[in-house]
Amino acid sequence: MIPDIIVNTIKDASHVVLITHVHPDGDALGSLFGLGDILEAQGKKVFRYLDAPVSYLYDFLPGIELGSTDSNAAIDFAKQGENDGGKVVAIALDCGDSGRMGDAGNTLLSITPFLVIDHHYGHREFGTHLWLDSDCSSTGEMVYELALAMDAQVSLIAAVCLYVAIVTDTGSFCYQSTSARTLRIAADLVEKGVRTDEVAAHIYENYTLERLRLMEMVLATLTVHSDARIALIHASVDMFGHSGANSDDVEGFINYPRSLSTVQVAGFIKETGNGAVSVSLRAKGNVDVAAVAATFGGGGHKNAAGFRIYGKPVQDVRSLVLTALTQAVV
Ligand SMILES: [Mn+2]
Questions:
Q1: What is the pTM of this model?
Q2: Ligand 1 centroid vs 21 CA: distance in angstroms?
């Protein structure tokens, strides 16, 4: 159930600043631009804040050009709203902790009230009022429930955004998080005119040659351990250089080691080039990768989690990850 305070605060607002996590994925962007459209249709002024320009993978999302990476402009928008006698509210979508909002997060947290809508398991609470539901497949699903609770219209633009949020965060309705409710909401969105074939083509058949070249190199690093219950791959800065691919191009790579029949846990280790190595973990069945990620200061869901390690070579991180996963699959 959605807390009344969340519904009422958003209903009463005249100015809304929408925020999502760094390196936004389909759920982050779909939720943000979907909710943005829904709130604007209600006559509210909306500022769609993004930490960085959006990956080419999502430039098909309707309204994506309305995003702004200018955090000062977001604060000015909030101040102006108050000066005009309006009611200002900020909403963080799909952020498991405040650090996920990026460098401007602390500045944006000065906007009050600050609402949080999130479905991450192991969410670290922040903000004024929170609506957390780790049973929801995606934040996009929560935004749709919010629209229903507000009696708000969901346009085709919003429907496409929310459908993208749901389809990407459920792995095309394959993950355990996909509930009957998820599918009913997806059906509602299709009834509003979403073309499932067009969305799938944008998301899954929109890749560059550089991405496939990088994939060749990354798959060559595949190793399996513990009777092939663990599979690991990695991408180094050199591989990005040689393939010409960029960091957006690795989206979905983790699904290849995960797709092995014997695998219970898959890990993808990526060197980012600024001294950080990011680790994505995916589990099938009962292994809890959120617990593994938490031991490294990260987080996520039981079946999908991640963390970052600073100042260690990618091979050392690979060894650390293997040791932790070996204990987790016992
Ligand atoms: Mn999500």
A1: 0.87
A2: 10
Q: For 107-150, what is each residue's pLDDT tens digit?
A: 999 999 999 999 998 889 999 999 999 999 999 999 999 999 99
What is the 120 CA–ligand 1 centroid distance (Å)? 7
Q: How far is the CA of 170 from the centre of ligand 1 (A)?
A: 9
Calculate how far, in angstroms, residue 81's C-alpha sits from the geometric centre of ligand 1. 29
Q: What is the CATH number of domain 209-328?
A: 3.10.310.30
Ligand 1 center from residue 297 Cα (angstroms):
19
Ligand 1 centroid vs 172 CA: distance in angstroms?
A: 13
Nearest to 268 by CA among 287, 285, 283: 283
CATH topology of domain 4-204: inorganic pyrophosphatase (n-terminal core) (3.90.1640)
Q: Map out the domains of the chain as residue ranges.
A: 4-204, 209-328
188 burial via Cβ count (<10 Å: 0-12, 13-18, 19+): middle
To 10 degrees, what angle do helices 156-169 and 139-149 make? 140
Query: Whole-number mean pLDDT of the chain?
Result: 96
